[in-house]
């Protein structure tokens, strides 16, 4: 049974029990239309999965040519300052508090102030082996003419040796773009793709692809609202709304 997370952003995006969809998505004021499950075959067009009007989070999926599994997209309005979002992303040791089913995360190498190599372990759904993934996290800071900050995560499966019994993920890729739209609100837009590697039942893969993006955004919002993130100095310029 997955432990209850303390309120608290990284996703992760990434509570992985069969009861979770009921516990999280059954709010009466949410328009939770799982249209993807009604599609006989997804194509290259985005299909809406969830529209949480109260929290301002929308998600979509599609099946791209040449990929084994669904890609996902998220749009959200986050309450908070961009500097808080960045500190949350850079507070790697606290990822298990908000990112999708992270059991552990290690910083392997700080390449530069905007590039980091990470190693993450993920809990998998019941009866499915847990996963691990080395990844590169790269941040593209804002500029004087472009106030959107971009966070890109890309799996590098062969960066470190495999660690059985963990199954090495082949992809955990995501591009997140965050833009201040007023003094208290950020616009978040993200697209990504996950390949869990090895063998996994379709129900588990579909559940993760459907649920993880929403839960990552929701978790990041809770961390930002709580203020429980790293207080370290941000190693590159961050422009808030109006700067």
From TrEMBL:
Which keywords does this Swiss-Prot/TrEMBL entry list? Answer: Signal
SUPFAM superfamilies per record? Bet v1-like (SSF55961)
Signal sequence, start to end: 1-26
> Gene3D superfamilies annotated for this entry?
3.30.530.20
For this protein, the record's InterPro entries field holds: START-like_dom_sf
The source's domain of life comes to Bacteria
Listed name of the protein: START domain-containing protein
């Amino acid at each position: 049974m997955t432990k209850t997370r303390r309120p608290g952003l990284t996703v992760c995006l990434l509570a992985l029990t069969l009861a979770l969809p009921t516990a999280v998505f059954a709010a009466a004021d949410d328009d939770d239309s799982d249209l993807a499950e009604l599609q006989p075959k997804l194509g290259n067009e985005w299909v809406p999965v969830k529209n949480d009007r109260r929290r301002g989070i929308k998600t979509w999926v599609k099946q791209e040519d040449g990929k084994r599994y669904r890609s996902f997209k998220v749009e959200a309005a986050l309450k908070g300052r961009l500097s808080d979002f960045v500190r949350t992303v850079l507070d790697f040791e606290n990822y298990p508090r908000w990112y999708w089913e992270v059991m552990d995360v290690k910083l392997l190498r700080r390449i530069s102030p905007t590039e980091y190599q990470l190693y993450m372990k993920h809990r998998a759904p019941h009866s499915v082996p847990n996963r691990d993934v080395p990844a590169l996290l790269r941040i593209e800071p804002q500029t004087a003419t472009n106030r959107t900050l971009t966070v890109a995560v890309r799996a590098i499966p062969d960066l470190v040796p495999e660690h059985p019994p963990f199954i090495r993920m082949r992809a955990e890729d995501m591009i997140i773009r965050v833009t201040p739209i007023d003094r208290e609100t950020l616009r978040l837009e993200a697209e990504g793709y996950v390949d869990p590697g090895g063998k996994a039942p379709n129900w588990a893969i579909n559940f993760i692809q459907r649920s993880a993006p929403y839960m990552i955004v929701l978790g990041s919002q809770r961390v930002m609202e709580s203020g429980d993130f790293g207080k370290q100095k941000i190693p590159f310029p961050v422009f808030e709304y109006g700067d």
